[in-house]
Inverse folding.
């Protein structure tokens, strides 16, 4: 792990981890901060290369680090159940952060938080974030607004699981992951990972994927999914992801990843 001081930020830029030609890490929430607010936390940011399925927090562990996914990296909140299965609730990419967003002190984690898509993360000690919030009302406001967006995602996910079909939810999760993966048509999701997102057995997921393949919507590759027809995939998805995007835009304009131009 290397400190993202001026030298570290230059190294990050060469790795493609900074945003829009700036010195800031490629994380939209950090990019949303004004210059003075970012300066309060910049000396304390460190860089980490995380691998897929790497554990960030277990339930009950002290949350002492805020993790900001950068670029196409993704983190996932997983709720363990009494039958031994973990059910994923929300995905977090470069639009946000996980761990200690609004808490004061080292409160225990409620869910398991893992790295979904490996790649660059930027880390910030919770104590340093809290100290910066004391100095800046505008910084407090940004993180409070982001916490509201996370809560909206959780509410929407609960409703989605209750009323939408597996086919709709499968399409939704693939789109949600694809949007955060820098607009790439290739999404590094396995059948097993999709099953966890959906909270169903792998056989159910495989049947849905086979249907989508037969319709020419997508193809599967080893460890990934290739989306061949985005429009058709969107038509099969519920509108839950769109609802979350609209709320992000109202609360934190410009933070949710905008879909890049793509070739068909």
């Amino acid at each position: 792990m290397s400190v993202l001081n001026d030298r570290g930020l230059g190294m990050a830029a060469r790795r493609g981890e900074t945003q829009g030609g700036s010195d800031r890490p490629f994380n939209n929430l950090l990019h949303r901060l004004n210059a003075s607010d970012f300066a309060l936390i910049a000396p304390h940011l460190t860089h980490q290369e995380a691998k897929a399925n790497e554990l960030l927090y277990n339930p009950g562990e002290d949350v002492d680090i805020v993790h900001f996914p950068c670029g196409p990296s993704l983190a996932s909140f997983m709720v363990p159940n009494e039958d031994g299965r973990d059910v994923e609730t929300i995905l977090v990419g470069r639009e946000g952060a996980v761990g200690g967003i609004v808490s004061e002190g080292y409160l225990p984690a409620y869910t398991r938080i893992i790295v979904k898509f490996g790649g660059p993360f930027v880390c910030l000690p919770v104590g340093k974030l809290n100290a910066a919030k004391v100095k800046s009302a505008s910084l407090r406001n940004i993180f409070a607004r982001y916490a509201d967006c996370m809560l909206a995602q959780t509410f929407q996910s609960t409703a989605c699981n209750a009323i939408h079909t597996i086919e709709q939810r499968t399409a939704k999760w693939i789109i949600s992951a694809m949007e955060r993966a820098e607009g790439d048509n290739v999404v590094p999701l396995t059948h097993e990972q999709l099953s966890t997102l959906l909270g169903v057995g792998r056989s159910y997921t495989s049947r849905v994927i086979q249907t989508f393949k037969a319709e020419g919507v997508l193809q599967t590759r080893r460890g990934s999914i290739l989306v061949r027809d985005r429009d058709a995939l969107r038509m099969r998805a519920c509108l839950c992801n769109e609802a979350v995007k609209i709320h992000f835009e109202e609360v934190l304009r410009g933070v949710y990843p905008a879909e890049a131009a793509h070739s068909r």
Remarks:
- Confidence is low (pLDDT under 50) at residues 1-16, 260-264.
